[in-house]
Amino acid sequence: MGGRGATARWGLVAVIGLGAMPGLLSPYALIVVSHALVLGIACTGVNLLLGYGGLLSLGHAAYFGLGAYTGGFLRLFAGLGSLEGYLLSGVAASTLLAALVGALCVRATRIYFTILTLAFAQTVHSLFIAGIVFRLAGDVGKGLFFVGEGGLYLPRLTLAGLEVAPERFHTILYYLIAACFLGSTTLMWRIVGSPFGKALQAIRDNETRAWCIGIRVRLYRWTAFVISGGFAGLAGGLAGELDRQVTPEQLHWLLSAQLVIAIVLGGSRHFLGPAIGALAVTLLHEVALRASLSHGLVLGGLLIAAVFAFPGGVAAGITGIVGKLKVLRAPGRS
Description:
Blueprint: H1 2-24, H2 27-50, H3 61-78, H4 83-105, H5 110-129, H6 132-135, H7 138-148, E1 152-153, H8 166-193, H9 195-205, H10 207-212, H11 217-243, E2 245-246, H12 253-266, H13 273-289, H14 295-309, H15 314-329
Antiparallel strand pairs: 1-2
Helix pairs in contact: 1-8, 2-8, 2-11, 2-12, 2-13, 3-4, 3-11, 4-5, 4-11, 9-11, 12-13, 13-14
């Protein structure tokens, strides 16, 4: 009961904190936080495979990018104008692709699984970067590919059937992203705490023992793969509308690597580690942007410093600091 009460209290703090952000931050800072929350959704999904399933995927950029591209194509060729339809179509397409790709990838383990996910993701990236997907729409699609070089511009989509004024758009979109983040985190909390989540962790710890006690290893891994793909698709759709554009870079494996870096930096074995890592990577990126000519050098140095400062992950480091503070403040200590 105490654990549930603590979870509820932290959840209330998160809701209040996220709800107060628009009144505390500048418009640019609010966009940065929005990007961190979007990245956090994607990282939370990928960590179901990495932290709880023990499988490293370098291909989830495919589902992230598809979550953005699907709604973009529907807007261009089917007149889709609602943000809800945009997001749902992206999640559906990403989940379907994850189901198909995952059915093949889970037949391999360890580094072979990682190579397969990377290979499939780069195949999807090539279909977009070469314009093959655009050509499916005929001459119009071919023209769009050459004009936008594989990218799509997105207008401000309607929300609940209403057009949002330009000056309020990013604030309303922030609240939607925050709601999706809280909803995704709550859902993942239920998943990892369910019998499915416990079985997935058993597979991670000892695959052979899990198989011997009757756990259907491939089915559980495939299910985790599909769920993580849906999370990545939702994040991709939100990122597309936040940036107001979709580009082939959102399908590239380097985005997959960024997700893994954020998870490891935050702590893959801590539930909030991926979200904290996403925030840390976003903030470090913003700091590095101040050095425009040596952005990569500064970002690399900051990441190295963060890893040495928190070798077990930022989340574990924060937990350790809080634990030490509680001990120091305990009655009877001077």
